[in-house]
Every structure is written in C-alpha cells, then in structure tokens.
Amino acid sequence: MKHVTERPFADPQAAARKLIELAASIEPVQDRRIHIEKINYPFLYTLKATGAEFGTGIRCAVEKGWLELHESGTYVRLLTAVGT
Fold first, then answer.
1. pLDDT class for 84, splitting at 50, 70, 90?
2. The domain that contains 27 carries what CATH number?
3. What is the pLDDT, as a whole number, of residue 33?
4. Does 21 map to a domain?
5. Distance between CA atoms of 24 and 44, rounded to whole angstroms?
6. pLDDT digit string (tens) for 12-39?
7. Is position 6 within any domain?
8. Alpha helix stretches (DSSP H) within 28-79
9. Taking the model in full, what pTM does it have?
C-alpha cells in the first residue's frame, strides 16, 4: 500500500499565490524584472513543489493578471502587490 501525502500546491491558485508571495519578497532589477530562477528555485527546492505545480501556478497567476511573464520565460513582472 502506498501512502500519498497531500500536495499543498496541487491547486493552481494556491501555487499562484505562493509564487506571488515569493516574487513580492524579491528586489526587482531593471524595469521591475524578477528573474524566473529567483522564484523557481525556492518554490521547487525549498517548498518541495513539482515542476508541473510551478508551471500551472505561473499560468494561473498570468491569467489572473497578477504576473506578467516575458515571452522568453526568463523573467516576470509583478502586476499586483497581493494576489487577491
């Protein structure tokens, strides 16, 4: 029997809110840019989320207008202070 633990970021909105929280804690560089690895690393390795959870969280945040993802995928811009 396998024991399955609940994934806190399986819900795209929960993942998006955590990504917004991480992005808000980072000092942006030129033109309000936040390099994607600055939020990717803590989300995947510190919080132990998966790549799929990261991807759906980013897409959800973009759809809700919380983040702007550059077409190259190398940086985001925070569009709102709090993901509400």
1. very low
2. 1.10.10
3. 95
4. yes
5. 17
6. 999 999 999 999 999 999 999 999 999 9
7. no
8. 36-41, 51-63
9. 0.87
Residue 27 CB coordination number (10 Å): 6
User: Cα–Cα distance between 23 and 59 in angstroms, integer?
Assistant: 15
**Stretch 34-60: mean pLDDT, rounded?**
95
- Bigger pLDDT: 80 vs 51: 51
Q: Which residue range(s) make up the domain with 47?
A: 12-78
Angstrom distance (rounded) from CA 22 to CA 43 = 8
- Tell me the sheet residues that pair with 2: none
Q: How many domains does the chain have?
A: 1
SS3 call for 34:
strand
What is the rounded CA–CA span in Å between residue 57 and residue 49? Answer: 11
Rounded to an integer, the average pLDDT of 35-47 is 95
What is the residue type of 17? R
Q: How many CB atoms lie within 10 A of CB 6?
A: 5
